[in-house]
Design brief:
Layout (H helix, E strand, L loop, with lengths): L1 H21 L1 H4 L13 E7 L3 H12 L6 E8 L5 H11 L3 E6 L9 H11 L4 E6 L2 E3 L4 H6 L8 E4 L1 E3 L6 H22 L11 E4 H6 L15 H7 L5 E4 L6 E3 L5 H15 L4 H27 L3 H26 L2 H4 L2 H21 L7
Parallel strand pairs: 1-2, 1-4, 2-3, 6-9, 7-10
Antiparallel strand pairs: 4-8, 5-10, 6-8
Helix pairs in contact: 1-11, 1-12, 3-4, 10-14
Length: 367
């Protein structure tokens, strides 16, 4: 029995290593830089009760160094002064267009409805999405993202990170989870199987949006305006990546663990609607990570060839460490990479709790 358990542990370890070896496709990748022409761009921002964030971050959009762009800011039935703030900016810059969305009983608290109205307002074919609490980290953000559009490219995946708060363990945890997610969706896309993107930094053409009939296939779901659309519309040939330092956006992370946990519950519930092959790949990845630590702990307790068990752990941590550090350097998240063994275990356990919680009740509104 002991040898059977050890054999299962070795097999699980190999599955983990196969996944992380595949992530070298992103960790070793070099950004392709700006390739295409400087196409006119419509930047679309959906804002719900974001008056303070708009005051702080909208100037970073306005000040972009790019020849032709408009900024469509959607006031999604805000109850604060969001609309007034947008109007103030519009007085200063005529490139800002306003979409004022009133509460609609059929689409209450549905961001996709608001985004659809914003997309219909856009005059340009190429759409670039970010959030009201996001700031591009360079004046060349539009150029870097839009530069990936070439003939046949309809979707551009970017990296949307979070601002660093020195001394905050929660901040490091949030940023590590964001890093791990990015490693996965960039790697899968590099290998020809794009499955998601993040609305904090995402671009696609209006032609593709209308070809897919917008968000129609998942309009009934509160979340998924970004990842479900990409999961449905992206192919190995129509998707490009932009992850150079000038292409990154950063946003305000959740201020409490409860808020972040609620956000992650929404993301996990949305992922159940991915294509079957992506659910399988992501599911096996999670299960393999969970089982590794279960069998690792069990074998150490039973003292089954502890030298082999510990050596296997060493190999696993070495490979994962290389992936995390190379990827973190690429995306400006070096400080969180040091915590990867501890954060990885915590995220595995948290995801297990989320699965159980979501079986009991589903998260409802997008904000």
């Amino acid at each position: 029995m002991a040898l059977i358990l050890l054999g299962i542990f070795i097999l699980i370890s190999l599955v983990n290593l196969i996944y992380f070896f595949s992530f070298f496709s992103f960790a070793n990748a070099t950004t392709s830089g700006k390739n295409g022409a400087e196409v006119p761009v419509s930047i679309i921002i959906c804002a719900k009760n974001e008056e303070e964030n708009l005051r702080n971050f909208l100037p970073a959009i306005i000040e972009q160094d790019y020849p032709s762009f408009e900024i469509i800011v959607i006031n999604d039935a805000s109850t604060d002064n969001t609309l007034e703030v947008i109007e103030e900016f519009q007085q200063l810059d005529p490139r800002i267009k306003i979409v004022d969305v009133a509460n609609n009983e059929a689409f209450w608290a549905n961001k996709k409805y608001a985004l659809t109205l914003g997309i219909k307002k856009a005059v340009n074919e190429h759409l670039l999405f970010t959030d009201a609490d996001c700031a591009p980290q360079s004046r060349n953000w539009i150029r870097e993202m839009a530069g990936q559009f070439q003939p046949g490219i309809d979707i551009v995946l970017g990296y949307g990170g979070f601002f660093q708060h020195t001394g905050s363990l929660l901040n490091k945890l949030i940023r590590f989870e964001t890093l791990l997610t990015a490693i996965q969706y960039f790697s899968y896309a590099k290998m020809g199987s794009p499955y998601m993107g993040v609305g904090r930094n995402l671009a696609y053409t209006s032609s593709k949006f209308y070809e897919m009939k917008g968000f129609a296939s998942h309009l009934h779901l509160r979340s998924g305006d970004d990842d479900l659309f990409v999961n449905e519309a992206a192919t190995p040939h129509n998707t490009a990546l932009s992850f150079g330092p000038d292409s990154i956006t950063r946003s305000v992370p959740k201020g409490s663990f409860k808020e972040w946990f609620t956000q992650k519950r929404r993301h996990v519930s949305t992922a159940t609607n991915y294509k079957s092959k992506h659910k399988l790949l992501l599911g096996v990845f999670y299960i393999a990570r969970l089982l590794f630590w279960v069998f690792f702990t069990l074998l150490l307790i039973l003292q089954v060839h502890p030298e082999i068990v510990l050596a296997t752990l060493g190999v696993k941590l070495l490979v994962e460490g290389i992936i995390y550090f190379k990827s973190a350097k690429k995306l400006g998240e070096q400080d969180v990479a040091w915590f990867f063994p501890f954060f990885d275990i915590f995220l595995i356990l948290m995801q297990l709790v989320i699965f159980i919680t979501n079986l009991v009740s589903k998260p409802k509104s997008w904000k």
